[in-house]
Amino acid sequence: MARPLVTSAGCLLNLMATGRVTEVLDALGVRLLAPRAVRSEPLALGGRDDELTAPTLDPIDLRSLESTERLVIEGLDAAELREAWVACSEQLHDQDAATVALAAVSGIPLATDDRRQIAVAIELFPDLEIVSTLELLADAAERLALDESELDELLRRVRVRAAFLPARDDRRRDWLLDRKPFESDVEFV
Amino acid sequence: MSPQALGQRIAKIRDQRGASRAEIAASLGIAAESLAALERGERRATNDELVRLSEALSVSLNELLSSRRSRADVEPRFRLARQVGLRDARHAVDTLTVLARKFVDLEQVLGIERPITPLESLETYHVSGRQGIDPRLAGEHAAATVRDALGVGNGPAVGLAERLEVEAGLRIFFLDDLPDTVAGLVIWTRELGGCIGINREHPLGRRRWSLAQEVAHFLRDREAGNVLPTAGRHRRTSADIFSESFTKAFLLPRASVSKQFADRCRANGGHFAVADILWMARLYEVSFSRMTRRLEELGFFPNGTYERLTANRYTPEPGIERVDIVGESRPFPGRFPMRYTAMALEAYERSLISERELAEFLETDRFSVRRLYQEWRLQRFADGSEVELDLSEEVVTLS
Fold this sequence. Notes:
The structure holds two protein chains of two kinds. Chain A is built from ten helices and seven strands. Chain A is globular and about 50 Å long. In chain A, the strands form two sheets. In chain A, strands 5-2-1-6-7 form a five-stranded parallel beta sheet. In chain A, strand 6, helix 7 and strand 7 (130-131) form a beta-alpha-beta unit. By secondary structure, chain A is of the alpha/beta class. Chain B is α+β, with helices and mostly antiparallel strands. Chain B has helices spanning 3-17, 21-28, 32-39, 47-56, 61-65, 86-110, 135-150, 160-168, 204-221, 238-251, 254-267, 274-284, 288-297, 305-309, 338-349, 355-361, 366-377; strands at 171-175, 182-189, 193-199, 226-229, 378-380, 386-388. Chain B has a four-stranded mixed beta sheet with strand order 1-3-2-4, with helices on both faces. In chain B, a hairpin with a 3-residue loop joins strand 2 and strand 3. Chain B starts with a helix and ends in an 11-residue tail after the last strand. Classes of the chains: A alpha/beta, B alpha+beta. Chain A binds chain B through residues 9-10, 13, 41-46, 55, 57, 79, 82-83, 85-86, 89-97, 114-119, 162-165, 168, 184, 188, and chain B through 1, 47-48, 50-51, 54, 60-62, 64-66, 348, 351-357, 360, 365-368, 370-371, 373-375, 377-378, 380, 384, 386, 390.
């Protein structure tokens, strides 16, 4: 049985950018949970690899993840969830607040790289476990036994298609920055 | 947030939405008197009520509950030209007000206290203090004063929007969602400061002209605000005369234009051709028509020169006067003032706002805002190397 992981919209975007989200989630043995507010944000990835200098936006289609229950959307109707949601909303955008509330009240780890969200989550729910995109990807790479070129390609896609830049205090930041795709191959317009 | 502060905010938002107490109370499933008590701060809202209130008032919970959110109102006494309908004017004012509130929100997030800006404290040209002064002369005088304040000197006022933002503290937005009938507008409140919206779809020369005109209205009667029509004119009121005179003297100062004209004639062996008008229009970043008419006004051309030169004009497609297009090779300005973008990125870097909030402040999607953040954070060098900057790192701290 896959273990649940509450995901922020940002982390979901990064996972989708890998192009191997199903494999990654299955390797991690993870089922993603997200509040409706995350589902209702129109997420989009940057254009295809050959369009680096003029990125277009490709809307993300989450239906296949949902139909296979790798992504489950949760409401915040229970009184306890609402209470946590309202408490978080004083300091966070509703969507960020809903995500933290869902994780905290359900006692499920939260996947996010957003430092504002993390700061408030730690303040209100010190026991909440938080994991970053990089931690998930590093773990998945190991479990999938990706070779160097596969891993480089996966990371390159996250950086290019999700425009992902790790937080300064990410525990796996050095692991990422030491790798080739994060050294020089991205063009900025 | 205290129940009183929350109650006041609920009442204000309800009022701004034009919704009655009974209407909102019904959607919450409570009595109107109960909502009234909530608005007076006499009772605390339950979590369910807060969620339903945010839905009924079409605001986020965060907007309802955060102390960092501005709800300032703008009620300018519109000086409306008949070319701009009330609906278009209201739409323009609402659009600009939303952006101005966001600006204030960002300042609050960063703990910035808005100082009274130099132009706000300039009362010399305010309508309340000028009795019987010729508005034309006052406009010219004001133009010289503002030129001095901006450090423009005697030459062309280039980088105008940036100068007005930095030196005069005005908040200038270039809007592509203004009604076609509106060229620009200015609003002011003590909380929001002076905010100008310019129709981004207009050519460079027209945008600059509109901007200078709105600065004049700001100097003369900021409390009243102004909505500038795209076509036609206001009645020839003192306000219009002041504004027109200010704009001409500011963008095309007599001494500077005369000198350029004389220099050009001298260099060309006494000749001054249409190409020279276009060159000067580009130099001063005004339209061909404005430049030609100014040269007429200054007595360098015979009256009617502009009409003669444009007698055979035609309209290739409907829309803005294409003959006025000058300097269109320059990129369109961004929607937001540079300072606004920088503040938003700094707030994000300092973990004061989330990525989602950053995207909302910059009115874009998550991917695009990440790219913008990268562009600012990663600085590249000619040798291909790059450095990752901390946007919130203090370089110096002045005591």
